[in-house]
Specification:
With about 775 residues, the chain is of the alpha/beta class. The protein folds into 6 domains: about 5-130 and about 260-285, MutS, DNA mismatch repair protein, Chain A, domain 3 (Orthogonal Bundle); about 150-235; about 295-510, 3-Layer(aba) Sandwich (Rossmann fold), CATH 3.40.50.300; about 530-620; about 625-705, Roll (SH3 type barrels); about 710-784, Ribosomal Protein S8, Chain: A, domain 1, CATH 3.30.1370. Helices cover about 50% and strands about 15% of the residues. It has 23 helices and 23 strands. Strand 13 (about 460-470) and strand 14 (about 475-480) form a beta hairpin. The chain is extended and about 140 Å long.
């Protein structure tokens, strides 16, 4: 990769931002040396690593990467027989502990999601629990050797504490004596040359005897070790020497143990460095709201809403750029409006980032090519004065590019041909673009020259573009317009700033008729584009409204079915209660009549009572089972496609389309199609031709859609057809989430299914199944 291009595109600033997300010196070292790769397989592997780390961060939020140190110099010195310091040994133990924690973390992740790359790293981590325990039992986190490091050290330190206590007792008795206030500069015990002393005034030096170890800067105070504690201090010093020898022995043993695990420690360091770097890339991707690009080695770029990573997210304008499919060269024309150079750098920097294994600041589904070389001739052309030296420096760079460029290159030219005579510069620019185009390279060039607008129209594989300019605010919108060449806004800007119309008209007269026609054509293109965008937005809104209306209708139909059954049941219960009440009253009347006959001897015959009871029963309302959709009229009719029928369920007329089963037909009611049982419809008249073009399909309540679709064993094309139909059915069924089982296999079917789902307007997000759901053999789809 060309170093000049990397410097021009400011890849070093991306590296510096990446460094901020590392946890250790090992990760920083890898971030500092990050370079884009030109190998397609390696780039794919690096992107998979970053994507897996990003997935873990989304699930867990954080990763245990603390406590990692670069212990490679320590292990090397230990291997050649050197003795490590306590701090160095603590760093060894800390790194071993961090690797053990990371290994456990990765193993626990298997219960949540599949992490094959991390598992591969985890297998290379050897748990050195014995070494870690030995160091931690001997040295604390601050680097102090503990008493428990050995029995000998514990004994020596106990003796030291005893001797120190006796020395302090003797000296404290001296500083508390009646003469102390007069003879001592201060009533304190201090240490000089590792021996306990007291501060004595110069004139009383002979009173205490002993040894003078130091004096104050003024010479008025002497730090004297009194004769009475000299012997105790000597004994204390002897024990200290023995203590130091014991500490060195312990450190030597631990260093030797470290040397035994030299190879294992180096492997741990390398793996932890890779993991730190891997998660740093994922955290950086999250910071810039990046996504994993789809990489290819066919020179195809498709950036969706890409942003420059070095511009704050709340300020940058996102642009979509496609290159390498329908055209291989983009010529961005128009005046300096601030945005053309940023577009160049965005494409170049996203390419370098993708090839370095970083996520790019663009939407999901963006595609990046892996180029062998990236060339950039981008300079500051914003100066009023253009000198020959500026032109010469650009030409030196362009000559170098033309000598090296090939079909597997991305070339970025900023203000191509600037810095010289306009006619010659435009001619050179066209010739240079032709030369690079012949090599098959992918090219994006910006220019001031209007001659290159025609170049974009007259060359196959070349397309014009421009940066939009808002004449209302007299400022650029930084929005890239593919297919629309830039036009000069000098006259419009001058007019809005107050320049006389006569001056502007005179200026227009100096412009050739051809130039005017081109400018008018561009203006017309811009107007048409804006109208088309407006129409598209309105169409999208109408489509969205129609979708919402369709969902509401479907919900209302489902509610209707549920409520219809419920209301029918309630009506049946109410009717039964009324009938029961009527019968009770009738029985009561009969009883009263019989009682009257017995009591008063009324001439009422028994058969007359029975007849009265029968008539009362006949007067009661008749109960009949209400079948769903009501009963069709008596009389069997042989239904045929095209028959006009009345659907009793909805009390609506419709036409028969086709027989679904022995007792069911597909009926079209207005724009809706549904399955209806023969018992729920009634024949009206003769066949009538109907328009059968499907507009919308509404499944009946009894239509069942499974919560999962099994594609295992299906051919690729057939599987995608089934997926398309299944997603439509699931949406109509109102499911919030479904599973698609594609298996693991070669991954071709899985990738094809996921590509289709990513581009589906109704899919909110997709993910692999959890461990209990089938892992990477299943894709879980969530709808909006």
């Amino acid at each position: 990769m060309q170093q000049r291009a990397m410097k021009t595109l400011e890849f070093d600033k991306v590296r510096n931002q990446l460094i901020e997300h590392t946890h250790s010196a090992l990760g920083r070292e890898k971030a500092q040396t990050l370079m884009p790769s030109a190998d397609f397989e390696e780039v794919s592997r690096l992107q998979e690593e970053t994507d897996e780390a990003a997935k873990v961060l989304r699930i867990k939020g954080n990763v245990p990467l603390g406590g990692i140190h670069d212990i490679r110099p320590h292990t090397k010195r230990a291997q050649i027989g050197g003795m490590l310091s306590p701090i160095e040994l603590v760093q060894v133990a800390s790194t071993v502990h961090a690797s053990r924690q990371m290994k456990r973390f990765i193993e626990d992740l298997q219960e949540v999601t599949e992490v094959p790359i991390l598992l591969n790293y985890s297998e290379g981590i050897i748990v050195l629990a014995k070494l870690e325990e030995s160091i931690k039992n001997a040295i604390d986190e601050g680097g102090e050797v503990l008493d428990s490091a050995s029995d000998g050290l514990r004994s020596l330190r106990q003796q030291m504490r005893t001797r120190e206590s006796r020395v302090r007792e003797k000296l404290e008795s001296m500083i508390r004596s009646s003469n102390a206030a007069k003879m001592l500069s201060d009533a304190i015990i201090t240490i000089r040359n590792d021996r306990f002393v007291i501060p004595v005034k110069q004139e009383y030096r002979s009173h205490y005897g002993g040894i003078i170890h130091d004096q104050s800067s003024s010479g008025q105070t002497l730090f004297i070790e009194p004769q009475t504690v000299v012997q105790l201090n000597n004994e204390l010093q002897t024990i200290r020497v023995k203590e130091q020898m014991e500490i060195e022995r312990i450190l030597s043993e631990l260093s030797a143990m470290t040397a035994e695990y030299h190879d294992e420690l180096l492997a741990i360091v390398e793996i932890m460095a890779e993991l730190d770097f891997m998660f740093a890339k994922a955290r950086y991707g999250s910071r810039i709201k990046g996504s994993k690009p789809i990489v290819n080695n066919e020179g195809r770029i498709n950036l969706i809403k890409a942003r420059h990573p070095l511009i704050p997210i709340d300020e940058v304008v996102a642009n979509s750029v496609a290159l390498g499919k329908d055209y291989t060269t983009i010529v961005i024309t128009g005046p300096n409006t601030g945005g053309k150079t940023v577009t160049l750098k965005t494409v170049g920097l996203c390419t370098l980032m993708a090839q370095a294994g970083l996520q790019i600041p663009a939407l999901d589904g963006s595609e990046m090519a892996v180029f062998e070389s990236v060339y950039a001739d981008i300079g500051d052309e914003q100066s009023i004065e253009q000198s020959l030296s500026t032109f010469s420096s650009h030409m030196v760079n362009i000559v170098e590019i033309l000598n090296k460029v090939d079909y597997n290159s991305l070339v970025l030219f900023d203000e191509l041909g600037a810095g010289t005579d306009p006619q010659e510069g435009a001619a050179l620019a066209i010739s240079i673009l032709d030369e690079v185009y012949k090599c098959g390279a992918r090219v994006i060039a910006t220019t001031h020259y209007p001659e290159l607008k025609a170049y974009g129209y007259n060359r196959e594989g070349v397309i014009n573009a421009s940066v939009e300019f808002d004449l209302e605010t007299l400022s650029p919108t930084y929005k890239l317009l593919i297919g629309v060449p830039g036009r000069s806004n000098a006259f419009e800007i001058s007019k809005r700033l107050g320049l006389k119309e006569s001056v502007i008209q005179t200026a227009r007269s100096y412009i050739s008729e051809d130039s005017n026609e081109v400018e008018n054509m561009i203006a017309s293109l811009e107007t048409s584009r804006k109208l088309a965008e407006k129409d598209r937005e309105e169409a999208q809104q109408l489509f969205k409204d129609a979708e919402n209306l369709h969902k509401d209708l479907q919900k209302q139909m489902a509610d209707y079915y549920d409520r219809k059954d419920e209301l029918a049941e309630k009506a049946k219960e109410k009717a039964a209660a009324i009938v029961e009440k009527a019968r009770d009253e009738a029985e009561e009347i009969i009883r009263e009549l019989r009682k009257l006959r017995l009591e008063k001897g009324a001439e009422i015959k028994e058969h007359e009572l029975i007849d009265a009871k029968r008539r009362l029963s006949d007067a009661a309302p008749e109960l009949r089972q209400v079948k769903k959709g009501g009963k069709a009229k008596a009389g069997k009719h042989e239904y045929q496609p095209g028959d006009e029928v009345k659907v009793l369920t909805f009390d609506q007329k419709g036409h028969l389309l086709e027989r679904v089963s022995n007792k069911e037909w597909q009926v079209q009611i207005g724009i809706l199609k549904m399955k209806v049982k023969e018992s729920d419809m009634e024949y009206i008249n003769s066949p009538k031709p109907v328009e059968t073009k499907p507009v919308a399909i509404v499944k009946g309540k009894d239509f069942h859609v499974s919560l999962e679709l099994d594609l295992r064993g299906e051919r690729y094309e057939d599987a995608l057809i089934r997926v398309e139909k299944y997603i439509d059915d699931a949406l109509l069924a109102g499911y919030p989430r479904v599973n698609i089982i594609h298996g693991k296999g070669t991954g071709a079917l899985r990738q094809g299914v996921q590509e289709y789902l990513k581009n589906h307007r109704s899919v909110k997000k997709i993910r692999f199944g959890d461990a209990g759901e089938g892992g990477t053999g299943v894709t879980v789809v969530e709808f909006k």
